[in-house]
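Haloacid dehalogenase
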Amino acid sequence: MSGDLAIWTDFGGVITAPVDVTFHDFSTRTGVPTHALKEAMRLVGEAHGTDSMGVLDIPLLDEAAWAHEVEEELARTFGLAADLRDFGDRWFEGRRADQAWLRRLAGLRSRGVFVGMLSNLPPSWERHRRYMADDSCFDDIVCSYAVGHRKPEPEIFEIAAERCGHDPAACVLVDDLEKNCAGAVAAGWQAVHFRDAEQAATEIEELIRARTAASASTG
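Predicted structure tokens:
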């Protein structure tokens, strides 16, 4: 296998458009300012002892209950009357997969590289994920809601490494969030901070070359 690496890609913000773009589009459709929505989500997460999406990613609440709490926080903190029913459907409306990145991943798999998806994902968003990138795109999929841990917690990286059968040092996380990349490195992984498909693919090729060269020198 090329470099004997396991590449684990994030979903939201990597396979999809950047999260800030989605926030902007969602806010435009709903009339809820982005800053207010982000703050209400943060406060709801804080009330449950986690960050803004931690409530959904494990999940601690189902989507409908979480959306209702965010509505209440928007009213309490900002005086905004918001209707966030069917949040996931509206969040993914018009959202498209990064086809350039999916092609890069397919190219890696065609060369024998293990490619998995490692995502903090609410269970109610699985059907949207499958529509954008179905299971056949990956050798394995590890989602927070299914394993009870989320990035950047070390446990989710341990689970993913065990699932793919690679040592942590041979696992690479591709993620748009620096805190998740830092969590991967703390777990003994390598990480690529995703900005666009070409940049991430270039960095992965450099890691493959380095791994191949190291294997040859010890062989």
